[in-house]
Amino acid sequence: MKKIAIAADHAGFEYKEYLKEQLGKDYIIEDFGTHSSESVDYPDFVHPAAESVENKKNELGILICGSGQGVQLTANKHKEIRCALAWMPQIAELSRQHNNCNMIAVPARFLAKEFVLEIVLAFLNASFEGGRHQQRVQKISC
């Protein structure tokens, strides 16, 4: 079973709990918080989740906040993280296939929970294609 890191801020808390419930049968989920809908600072939860993926403790990561932007920007500060902001299943799938993304960020305030699940499943079920994409991915890091 794949090990997945998950983290959210207060805007994504409800979605995080929903995703854990839906994915828990097929994946080992490590929850990095938040653990309520009280206002929090998302970097406090994103950095530990990203570190767990960066250090290979978890294979992939899912991040949720209101717009998806804050968590995505924070995760991408980590050298070994490639986190995509996805609002459609096809974008999530391509982020894995072409960019070898190891984390995904989704916007809770703009999408229904069930649609976010579709996006996350597209991400989790896709694989990096390598080939012509490998050279491009290797040029991403500074």
TrEMBL record:
Pfam families: LacAB_rpiB (PF02502). The keyword Metal-binding does not apply. Gene3D superfamilies: Sugar-phosphate isomerase, RpiB/LacA/LacB (3.40.1400.10). Keywords: Isomerase. D-ribulose 5-phosphate binds at residues 9-10, 66-70, 99, 109, 132, 136. It comes from the Bacteria. InterPro entries: RpiB_LacA_LacB (IPR003500), RpiB_LacA_LacB_sf (IPR036569). GO terms for biological process: D-allose catabolic process; pentose-phosphate shunt, non-oxidative branch. The active site is at 65 (proton acceptor), 98 (proton donor). GO terms for molecular function: ribose-5-phosphate isomerase activity. Belongs to the LacAB/RpiB family. This is RpiB/LacA/LacB family sugar-phosphate isomerase.
